[in-house]
Amino acid sequence: MSNGLYTAYLGMRARQRALDVTANNIANVSTTAFKADRLLYRAVEAEIVPESEPLGAEAADNASTSSAVLSDNGGQAERAATLALHARRVGVVTATATDFSAGPIRQTGRTLDIALEGDGFLVVATARGERYTRAGSLTLNSAGQLVTHEGDLVVGDAGPLTLPPGDIAISGDGVISVRGNVVGRLKLVRFENAGRALVKEGHSLFAATGAEQPKEAVGTLVRSGALEMSNVNPVSELVTMIQQGREFESMQRCVTLMMNELGRKIANELGRI
What we know:
The protein is α+β, with helices and mostly antiparallel strands. It has helices spanning 3-27, 57-61, 77-84, 194-197, 234-272, and strands at residues 37-50, 64-67, 86-98, 105-107, 114-117, 121-126, 129-133, 139-140, 146-147, 153-156, 159-160, 168-170, 175-178, 181-185, 188-190, 198-201, 205-208, 215-216, 221-224, 226-228.
């Protein structure tokens, strides 16, 4: 494949991936405590690998294979011939990172709605194991257990929280009282590097990667009667999407021009035969 065509193809693919990420951010602009995704790029110019080495699915998607001819300053023809049997892998690698910056807080007046001020996370128990979230739209299930909007059990210092009937109050340090009696405390944790320690699972849940152990979120304040909203800026995301669309169209035009030029050259060469 022509180097120019392949370069344009890589650019188009990267912009398409960026458009997908931006569209997902915009779609979740109203999702409680949603954290925006950001796309990271890493260019891989050349990596010499044996042709016999199999390419994984991701590597094959991000790479093309062509013969590599390297100059040999020592004039060793045998070494040059050996290097010629290798392949060159080139491409652009993309990765998605989560923006953990806080979203705006909206007052709801509902007692079981909570927003976290600080870098803490609620701990919830799911069928897949322990997870972390900042989505504080809580409710009670039929057994009187405190659960998230998706039905996952909210974990306290002593395990899942079961509340007796009565008026509920949640203090700034996460202590839960019913009719003036303390019945439990929300378990709040934090991570030194959330981007490395957590991976997004769905829209508002995060799973631990094992890179670090959670610590008690001492400085996190619980605000009852409020919710943290998405940290997506819709205006900024729309501007970004327009820019990405224009870049994609520009590269698409480049591919069209190169294909037309290639077709013209082929026609001229065939005409001489």
